[in-house]
């Protein structure tokens, strides 16, 4: 019985991994039960019995995406001092290590979240998409707030506004990286981030770390 359960869990993990691969390269809207079945060379019913529905599979893919994104982009920065050093590390890793994953987040959050067709994306999935995005933004806002409290950024800085501007830079980076394919996109986004930071940086930074 345990062996059968282990095999079933391995198959489910393979299904989610296959879905992640399709979503990264083609977008979440390209993930279907049939596409997964063909990719893994198993029956469509074999996929269905383990995930229950396409929407449930998409949620599992989002869960896995956020787990990998956190491990790749956020968790390594916790060894940095709270405040600006950590924020800088997050942005650097987001740009240089989370490129494919960032493209994935753009494909689902930018396209699916703003889809006005309620039949295309059920309310539960849309809610999951929005909640995931808002949780990440709130994490960044807390990091900015810590930078303000430690005197790294101006006391009158608005964390929500700064995070909005950082997201805007990353959106431009995604366009240049994946559509324009500008070889200088990494340099450009980090240069833009440096200029953005200069408008928020405290003039007197007596407190460090």
Automatic annotation (TrEMBL):
The keyword Calcium does not apply. Pfam families: TetR_C_13. Residues 9-69 form the HTH tetR-type domain. InterPro entries: Homeodomain-like_sf (IPR009057), HTH_TetR (IPR001647), Tet_transcr_reg_TetR-rel_C_sf (IPR036271), TetR_C (IPR011075). Residues 32-51 bind DNA. Keywords: DNA-binding, Transcription, Transcription regulation. This is TetR/AcrR family transcriptional regulator.
């Amino acid at each position: 019985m345990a062996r059968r359960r282990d095999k079933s869990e391995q198959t489910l993990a393979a299904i989610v991994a296959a879905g992640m691969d399709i979503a990264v390269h083609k977008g979440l809207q390209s993930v279907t039960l049939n596409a997964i079945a063909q990719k893994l060379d198993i029956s469509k019913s074999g996929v269905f019995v383990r995930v229950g529905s396409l929407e449930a599979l998409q949620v599992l893919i989002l869960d896995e995406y956020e787990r990998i994104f956190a491990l790749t982009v956020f968790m390594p920065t916790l060894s940095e001092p709270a405040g600006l050093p950590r924020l800088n590390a997050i942005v650097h890793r987001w740009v240089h290590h989370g490129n494919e994953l960032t493209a994935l987040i753009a494909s689902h959050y930018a396209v699916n979240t703003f889809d006005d067709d309620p039949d295309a994306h059920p309310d539960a999935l849309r809610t999951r998409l929005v909640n995931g995005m808002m949780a990440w933004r709130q994490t960044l806002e807390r990091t900015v707030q810590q930078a303000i409290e430690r005197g790294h950024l101006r006391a009158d800085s608005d964390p929500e506004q700064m995070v909005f501007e950082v997201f805007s830079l990353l959106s431009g980076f995604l366009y240049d990286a994946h559509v324009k394919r500008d070889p200088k996109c990494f340099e450009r986004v980090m240069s833009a981030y440096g200029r953005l930071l200069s408008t928020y940086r405290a003039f007197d930074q007596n407190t460090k770390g």
